[in-house]
Amino acid sequence: MRPQSPRRTQSPQPPQPPQPQLQDPPIYRALIRNWAERGKTLPGRHDPEWVRLAAPPARLGQFSASRDPRGDGR
Known about the structure:
Helix content: 25-40%
Structural class: mainly alpha
Oligomer: single chain
Shape: elongated
């Protein structure tokens, strides 16, 4: 049998300070400004069209059916 080597205990590491937020490069800021001026969707921003498209479908009975007689060709 091999002799067991002593286990190394790791000392707790001090908490790391949060990394500073880097600013976007000027070319990226200009692109975002251009997209915003043209009403385009931007990363990380509210998008009303996506909200509408991702909404749950209408439930059964949510809309009323036509009162026209069946088989009238409509």
